[in-house]
Design a protein that fits this description.
The protein has helices spanning 2-37, 44-55, 74-84, 96-107, 118-127, 134-150, 153-163, 173-181, 190-198, 213-228; strands at residues 165-167, 170-171. By secondary structure, the protein is mainly α. The protein has a two-stranded antiparallel sheet. Strand 1 and strand 2 form a beta hairpin. Helix 3 runs parallel beside helix 9 (190-198) and helix 9 packs across helix 10. It is globular. It starts with a helix and ends in a 10-residue tail after the last helix. It comes from Vreelandella aquamarina. Its EC number is 2.4.1.129. It is an enzyme of class 2 (transferase). Keywords: Glycosyltransferase, Transferase.
Length: 238
């Protein structure tokens, strides 16, 4: 009797789990398809920052204005690719070359390197929370596969530039351009774009308008990489 009851319970639990998984898959695919044509209303990072401000009783005003692909500076598009993911046009969401290098560096006892692509960063920013748990990394991989399947490279970069965090409460290229330089996202110069890309590893502790020596060096490196890639004509590969 107990064995039959336990078996029935396990079968019901199994059905419940699979229904939950199926529901998650359908909802995640539906969201990705929706955001293929509709601008995301925000990002999970924005939600996270707002919750943190409530917990710590530190009010924060979120700044963000969506801008379409044609309204975003080509300099900024190229600067972000040069700084973050130079194989962005050719990989399928995961840069295996950088992953191998990061793994080797870690095995050799060096500093742990990041190997996150722009696709992974977009998936994380829009759909997930911050952190390094295996659960979050698994979900990041899932959403990365989805956006690489259903979005164009141009759409991925467009969304990334509109949700990336550039200072406390400053999200998206339009808000960042006005916050640091007083210009629109379409008017960024090569230098301004490189400075914005240079602070992305730590946007809340660095400034694009008042760069320290480290940001300045990284900005100059990014400009060299932009030119090595062939200038803004490189964007045609998207």
């Amino acid at each position: 009797m107990l064995k039959r009851t336990l078996g029935r319970f396990l079968r019901q639990l199994w059905r419940l789990v699979w229904r939950g998984v199926l529901l998650f898959v359908l909802l995640s695919v539906a969201l990705v398809l929706l955001f293929r044509v509709v601008p995301p209303p925000g990002s999970m990072v924005m939600v996270e920052r707002k919750i943190q401000s409530w917990i710590h009783s530190e009010p924060i005003s979120l700044q963000r204005q969506w801008r379409s692909w044609d309204e975003l500076s080509s300099n900024a598009k190229l600067a972000v690719i040069a700084a973050e993911d130079q194989r962005f046009p050719v990989h399928r969401g995961f840069d295996l070359v950088e992953l191998r290098r990061a793994w080797q560096a870690n095995q050799d006892g060096g500093r742990l390197r990041g190997a996150s692509t722009l696709s992974q960063q977009t998936a994380k920013n829009v759909f997930l929370w911050s952190g390094r748990s295996w659960t979050r990394k698994g979900l990041e991989a899932w959403f990365t596969l989805l956006i690489e399947t259903f979005w164009s490279k141009q759409r991925i970069l467009e969304v990334y530039l509109n949700v990336a965090e550039w200072d406390a409460g400053v999200f998206g290229l339009e808000a960042a351009s006005r916050h640091y330089f007083g210009v629109s996202a379409s008017a960024l110069s090569e230098r301004q774009a490189s400075l914005l890309a240079a602070i992305l590893p730590s946007p809340r502790t660095r400034s694009a308008s008042r760069p320290d020596a480290q940001v300045e060096r990284r900005s100059q490196w990014i400009v060299r990489q932009m030119r090595n890639l062939g200038g803004t004509g490189y964007l045609q590969r998207l």
